[in-house]
Every structure is written in C-alpha cells, then in structure tokens.
C-alpha cells in the first residue's frame, strides 16, 4: 500500500468538498475501495460507484454537503512515509473520539477505529477524518 496514494486521495477528497463539487472521479484500487466503504458507512461521503473514466477503471465518488454550514470534513494523514504511527488495541480505545474516526490498516484489513474496537485489534493509523 502506497502512502502517496492515500495522501493524494485525501487531498483530492478535501479539495472536492471545499469547492462544493457533487462528485469526482478517482482511479480504482483495493485500498481506496476499503477507505470509501468506511467513509460511506460513517457518513462522510454519500455513495460511490465503479465506472470507466477516460478508459480506466475508476470510482465516481458522490460527496455529502451540509446545507446549514460551510464547514467541510477534515482529512488528516497520520502515518507518513517518514514516520509511521501505530495504535495498539489499547490505544484504539484511548484515542477514539465521538467527533471523528481513525482509519487503520490492521491484520483484518482496513478498518475504522470503531470496527477495530469490536475486533480488539490495533494497526497502522492511515487517516483521521473529522
């Protein structure tokens, strides 16, 4: 899994929300599929679908905008190529918040902090979304 891929995706998602786009396209990968599954489940994106865009397999990602405020979701990369952060199963309980979610790469796949709590596992922290 490439950290650059996740950095670029988080940046594109944040920029699309700030510019109030309804949707945008992103190349299809397994990692992005799992991250999108979590973001949809937690309510950060409306939905997504697989399609062909400019001859490549892609996702069309439909964003969720709140009408009552101009604030957009914040996507922060936690683990960087130069410094990777890991949460033990105890850290997942300690740092979990009601405001946002952590997305972790675990032995069970890519999970949200809530799913990691249920499975009593830790892992590499990829993103924090609030």
UniProtKB/TrEMBL annotation:
GO terms for cellular component: cytoplasm; ribonucleoprotein complex; ribosome. One of its GO terms (biological process) is translation. GO terms for molecular function: structural constituent of ribosome. Pfam families: Ribosomal_S8. PROSITE patterns: RIBOSOMAL_S8. It comes from the Eukaryota. The keyword Oxidoreductase does not apply. Keywords: Mitochondrion, Ribonucleoprotein, Ribosomal protein. Belongs to the universal ribosomal protein uS8 family. This is Ribosomal protein S8. The lineage of its organism: Eukaryota, Sar, Stramenopiles, Ochrophyta, Pelagophyceae. The gene is rps8.
